[in-house]
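Quality-control log, excerpt.
Job 1 of 2 completed; input and output follow.
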Amino acid sequence: MPTDDLPETFHVTTDEQLRAVSNLTRHRIMAVLRFEPATITQIAERVGLAKGSSSYHVRLLERAGLVKVVRTRKVRGVTERYYAMAARSIALPDPGEGGPDVLMRHAVADLEASPADGERHVRMAHLRLTDEQFAELGERLQALADEYRELSDPSLPDASLVFALFHPRAHEQAVQTEQTVQTEQTEQAVQAEGDAK
């Protein structure tokens, strides 16, 4: 695989980097570059962009340090640049409670855009686990993803694997939050009514 000499993980730490990865088009450009380098023209063709748009998005990714030029070649007097990922994977910061999860939003968008007649496996399971079982399942899922990433062949069609193992907000906490919001809305309505008199 051409990414063997790359760092394992790129940690997104700045606002510029977060803005770069938060865009769905740039997410799809990085997916193109995941396994092999590509030129602006090749990226544009694979993502379905105009060449100018492809160049713009790649420049933003390069400026943020997420992609880099790995080789160049002269074609009819013009220098073609081949871009690749700066690392084998990208680690995003925790969005925090109630914050948007960029990775999952991109995954859902890609799933919804995938061919309706294509094979896909989607499942949600509600579990009750001990802390040890939760940690073990997380490790096994990660190991499985890593195993199949190593088996990936750039000559084969793309396939995406996304998993999320998490503790949902407790029902009591969700009810409390909803009640707090309703109380605040009622107080605002009462105050607005008083102001109008």
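Job 2 of 2 completed; input and output follow.
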Amino acid sequence: MLVTYVVLFVMTGSVLAPLKAAVLTMLSMSIMFGVLVWGFQNGALAGVLGFTPTGEIEPSIPILMFCVAYGLSMDYEVFLLARIKEDYDRTGDIVGSIPRGIARSAPLVTAAALILAVSSAVYSTGSVVFLQQLGIGIALTVAVDATLVRGVLVPALMRSAGRANWWAPAPLRRLHDRIGFREDLGQDISRADSEHPVGARR
């Protein structure tokens, strides 16, 4: 998680955005673990999936599921934050950059989440309990993370935070100015293309 925080800071230059991402990702993880306990440890899904509950979960399963789901969740966060930050850097519009950034990243995030949720849910149709747990847990986590968390909670919290979304102490701001990821190259290329279109006379 520390590495994730550092990478998101290098990308955004903010100390709040990576923290918010980690907290919301933990929310998605808690949903996944809650389903594991309710559906498999307590046996609520035993009749539907056709397994015999044992009252416990193999310790390696939550660890594996956490690694997979955490990585997927952070992928969606990176897509989302990158587009919002890019729009904010270009326009300086704190409020408007949020829906515009989400609109630009939504097709990719939605398509990826749909593919992963459906492909993971297929595992629940088997007879191996380990695969059923993996399929149900990952599918539900991806679906909730891409819709409720990234589509509702992220924009709501960013709208409430305002300028604090991109705030960092002066020393960290100077550090980000030296090592942070930028979109300047793409902007410079676009600017050059607009000034000198291909095929235009010199």
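Post-run check on job 2. Residues 28 and 145 are 6 Å apart (CA to CA).
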